[in-house]
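Comment thread on ticket #2218

A.B. wrote:
> Attaching the input chain for the structure job we discussed in standup.
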Amino acid sequence: MGGYFSRFMVVSGYILLLVTAGLVSFLVQYYTCEFLLLLGGLIIGHFALRLIFGVNPSFTEVIRKNDRSLLEPLIRDANKEAINQYVILSSLTGFTGTFQKIGFSGLLLVTVTLTLVFSFLSFFQ
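C.D. wrote:
> Ran it. Output below, let me know if you need it in another format.
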C-alpha cells in the first residue's frame, strides 16, 4: 500500500511542477510588466517584514542576566547617558542593527530606500 502512495505523490509532484512552470511561462510571456511588479512587491514586502520583525520575538528577557549587574547601579543612580548607550549597543543585532552600525537608522534609512525604489521605478516610464 505504501508503494502506491509514494508513487502517486511523486507523479502528482511532477504534474504540479509542470503546471507551475507553465503558469510562470505564461505570466512572463503575456504579463511581463505586471509579473515584474508583483515580483518586486514580494521582494520589497519581504524586506519590510524583516525590518518590522527584526527583533527576535521569542526573546522575552528585557535585561540580560549577565548585563543586570552592570545596569543596576546605573539605574539606581539615574545615569541616563550610560543607559542610553547600553540600549544603543544592545540593539546592534539583526537586520536593522546592521544599518545602525554604519550610521543608517530610522528616517534616513527609509528615505534612502524609497529614493532607490522610486529611481528604479522611473526607468520603466
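A.B. wrote:
> Thanks. Noting for the ticket: Residues 2-30 form the longest helix (29 residues).
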